[in-house]
């Protein structure tokens, strides 16, 4: 029986992947690693190991103990937070990945997943349907670390045959956890504000369009990529992934169309500059042709799905 290891399990994406992997393989096959506890009731169904992913020996010990068939290395500092502590962000975004790649190179992990981001693109990339390989000159430390990490993934694959797979996630919108220091997180906050009847203090301009996706679609994409035939994967840096795209004003208008009003006070700050350097939408044709990716949610679908999730009882 195989084990599945999530490192960075307490983060926004980690909790969602935990639930999906528990459902797919059984909670007893899922091991959760993080420096802090995983704030979800179902975390208690799986083994939790407190660990520091920047500590090479701790990662090696964890992998030898768990012997995972797949390792999801999710530890990261997102874009807005990263700008406040660039060198710390660089260390946190690179060291855990390099430890995972080294362990895979040594044959101790057969398959690794590592998340990349729309943040790999810089201001000179085409804004609409941004191609896979154009304009990878980011202006944030988060983007710099993601481009570098992608190249390390490709290097370990080409040089050592490491099976590492990656996706460039857009802004991920879930209802189970609160935002975690990203630029796209205004949209997560918008949903919480809307259902709680509070105004949103929005740090982006009303017209700033960004690519977005439900957590549900992002997790499905991740599991589909991990299950794909490795020989079919033409991209070993990281795949562009497109869900839907909207601006704060368009989000407010779709919420209103679905019967939820939200007052917004716009006060753009430095996060607006970050958002302006990113694409409006991505060309994800490589993901579509290589492993059959199809997004399930357009903007109305995303808004409906998140509102439905937030109205469920006992949300973590
Ligand atoms: N959601 C991330 C951020 O805003 C981008 O991948 O930092």
Topology:
Blueprint: E1 3-7, H1 12-25, E2 30-34, E3 47-50, H2 56-66, E4 68-73, H3 79-84, H4 86-105, E5 111-117, H5 141-160, E6 163-169, E7 171-173, H6 186-196, E8 200-202, E9 210-214, H7 215-227, E10 239-240, E11 244-246, H8 248-257, E12 264-266, H9 270-276, H10 285-291, H11 299-310
Parallel strand pairs: 1-2, 1-4, 2-3, 4-5, 5-6, 6-10, 7-9, 8-12
Antiparallel strand pairs: 9-11
The site of serine (SER) has 11 residues, from loops.
CATH topology of the largest domain: Rossmann fold
Count of DSSP-assigned helices: 11
Give me the count of strands.
12
Give the C-level CATH assignment of the largest domain: Alpha Beta
Order of helices and strands: EHEEHEHHEHEEHEEHEEHEHHH
Quick check: average pLDDT? 96
What's the gyration radius in Å?
Answer: 19 Å
> Please, what is the CATH homologous superfamily of the largest domain?
NAD(P)-binding Rossmann-like Domain
Class inferred from helices and paired strands: alpha/beta
Roughly what percent helix?
40-55%
Classify the beta-strand content into a percent band: 15-25%
- Poorly predicted runs: none
Shape estimate = globular
Identify the bound ligands. serine
Strand order of the largest sheet: 3-2-1-4-5-6-10
In words, what does this structure look like?
- With 316 residues, the protein is α/β, with parallel strands linked by helices.
- It folds into two domains: 3-170 and 215-240, 3-Layer(aba) Sandwich (Rossmann fold); 172-211 and 245-281 and 296-310.
- It is 41% helix and 17% strand.
- It contains eleven helices and twelve strands.
- The strands form three sheets. The protein has a seven-stranded parallel beta sheet, sandwiched between helices.
- Helix 2 (56-66) packs across helix 4, helix 4 (86-105) packs parallel to helix 5 and helix 6 runs parallel beside helix 8 (248-257).
- The longest helix is centred in the N-terminal third of the chain and has 20 residues, at 86-105.
- The mean pLDDT is 96.
- The structure holds serine (SER).
- Residues 78-79, 117-119, 142, 169, 171, 182-184 line the site of serine.
């Amino acid at each position: 029986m195989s084990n599945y290891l999530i490192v960075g399990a307490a983060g926004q994406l980690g909790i969602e992947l935990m639930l999906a992997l528990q459902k797919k393989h059984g909670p007893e096959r899922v091991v959760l690693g993080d420096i802090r506890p995983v704030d979800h009731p179902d975390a208690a169904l799986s083994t939790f190991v407190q660990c520091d992913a920047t500590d090479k020996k701790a990662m090696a010990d964890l992998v030898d103990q768990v012997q995972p068939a797949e390792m999801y290395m999710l530890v990261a500092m997102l874009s807005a937070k990263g700008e406040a502590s660039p060198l710390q962000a660089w260390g946190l975004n690179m060291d855990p990945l390099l430890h995972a790649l080294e362990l895979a190179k040594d044959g101790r992990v057969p398959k690794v997943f590592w998340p990349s981001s729309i943040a790999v693109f810089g201001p000179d990339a085409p804004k609409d349907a941004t191609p896979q390989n154009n304009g990878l000159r980011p202006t944030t430390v988060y983007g710099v670390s993601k481009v570098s990490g992608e190249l390390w993934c490709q290097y370990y694959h080409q040089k050592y045959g490491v099976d590492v797979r990656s996706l460039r996630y857009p802004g991920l919108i879930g209802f189970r956890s609160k935002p975690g220091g990203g630029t796209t997180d205004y949209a997560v906050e918008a949903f919480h504000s809307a259902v709680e009847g509070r105004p949103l203090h929005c740090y982006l301009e009303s017209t700033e369009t960004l690519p977005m996706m439900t957590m549900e679609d992002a997790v499905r994409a991740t599991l589909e990529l991990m299950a794909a035939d490795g020989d079919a994967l033409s991209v070993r840096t990281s795949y562009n992934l497109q869900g839907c795209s909207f601006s704060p004003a368009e989000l407010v208008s779709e919420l209103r169309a679905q019967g939820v009003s939200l007052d917004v006070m716009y006060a753009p700050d430095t996060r607006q500059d970050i958002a302006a350097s990113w694409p409006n939408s991505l060309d994800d044709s490589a993901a579509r042709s290589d492993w059959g990716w199809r997004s399930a949610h357009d903007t109305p679908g995303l808004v409906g799905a998140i509102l439905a999730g937030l109205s469920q009882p006992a949300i973590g």
